[in-house]
Amino acid sequence: MYFIQPTLKFREFLGSFFVGGSEKELSEKLSNYFPNREIFFTDSGRSALALIIEKLGLKNSTMAVPAYICNVLKPIFDHYGIRLVFLDIDPETFQPNLNEYRSKITDEVKAILICPTYGFPVPNETADYLKLAKRIIIADCAQCMNFNFLKEKSQENSFNAFYYSLPKISPAPDGGVAIIANTTQSTQNFPRSSFSLGFLKNLLKSCGILNFFIQKTRDLLNLNNVGNLRWKNITAPHQISIKIFSNYLQKILEKKSTSFCVPILCIANRDGILKKIRKNNIFAEIIWSDPLVFSYPYNRHCPNTDKLARQIICLPNMPENEINKIKIILKQSSP
Question: What's the number of domains the chain is made of?
């Protein structure tokens, strides 16, 4: 069985309740990779973005964002009165191309949000443009924690802030990390997240065998959105999430990079193919069937995003023999 997000073996899952570093220890470890930056732990990647907006003074400003990005960010932008300029993506890079930036980045735009979607990096020519854009640059790294970029003159070192979602890059049931260039803005202490059905579901999904039964039940009863967590305000993560991420961080450091859904399929008969793949215990997902741009009535001329959002299936990282199973499914399903 293969999942989009990392999971723990049952023994590791039980041990995570007792063994793991503290928030202070984790912050000290990460600070070695993010010098001269403030590190904050929140309950989610969404809250990490909200904190960045507060710290960088972006309330009631205009931000340019990729049209193909997750719609769970909508409550954040609405809460802070952020006006959005949508940038259509290039199907080859999953990034807005340079012409899209040049045509839509006006004097009104104060910040630009980029996203290494499915692990695809920002093209070099675009990165060069962003360095000279004189805008606040924020990187949504929810899908890829990559420590290789933390070198002199790297793209990300020029960003004002970037953030991660712990459940996307580790088995942690909740949590986010905001990494921000040092500012003078004060930050409040956030209350601890309350226990909820959504957190319980995510906690059980941290364990591979339990996630297997959850995924099978979801497919059998068509329970796609039961217990999904909704954003209300910034809170601190549960301690169990800090422990799990602290333990898992060493694996990330050893691999140097990890991404939860680099392999993708782009096909027309998506829903039918997805069901066949999942029946083989390969728990592929449709991550962004309704990207953020679909939630707004304005600035909707993003034809590439409209097309790709209806065709993409995200696959787990798998060995070659399992990939061959998918190839057989695709061949059998072709007209």
Answer: 1
Model confidence at 151, pLDDT cuts 50, 70, 90, reads very low
* Matching residue, tokens 């443009």: 129
> Domain containing 101: what range?
2-333
Strand partners, 83: 62
Q: What is the pTM of this model?
A: 0.89
Cβ of 265: how many Cβ atoms within 10 Å?
16
Sign of CA dihedral 30, 177, 262, 97: negative
| Six token digits for residue 76 | 């954040």
Strands (E), the chain: 2-3, 37-42, 62-66, 83-87, 109-114, 136-140, 144-146, 161-165, 176-181, 257-259, 264-266, 282-283, 312-314
| DSSP SS3 for 25 | helix
Task: Answer whether 257's CB lies under 8 Å from 147's CB.
Answer: yes
The answer, yes or no, to whether residue 294 has pLDDT greater than 70, is yes
Beta pairing partners, 38: 180
Residue with structure tokens 């798998």?
318
**For the segment 77-120, what is each residue's pLDDT rounded down to a tens digit?**
999 999 999 999 998 888 999 999 999 999 999 999 998 888 78
Phi, psi at residue 77, to the nearest 5°?
Answer: -65, -40
CATH (domain of 66) = 3.40.640.10
Question: Which residues are within 8 A (CB) of 175 and not within 5 positions of it... i.e. 6 or more apart?
Answer: 41, 42, 43, 44, 165, 166, 167, 237, 238, 241, 242, 245
Helices 270-279, 320-333: inter-axial angle, 10-degree rounding: 140
Which residue in 49, 42, 191, 179 sits closest to 111, CA to CA?
A: 49
DSSP 120: P
Neighbours of 124 (CB within 10 A): 9
Give the span between the Cα atoms of 222 and 225, in whole angstroms. 9
Q: Which helix (H) or strand (E) holds 101?
A: helix 98-104
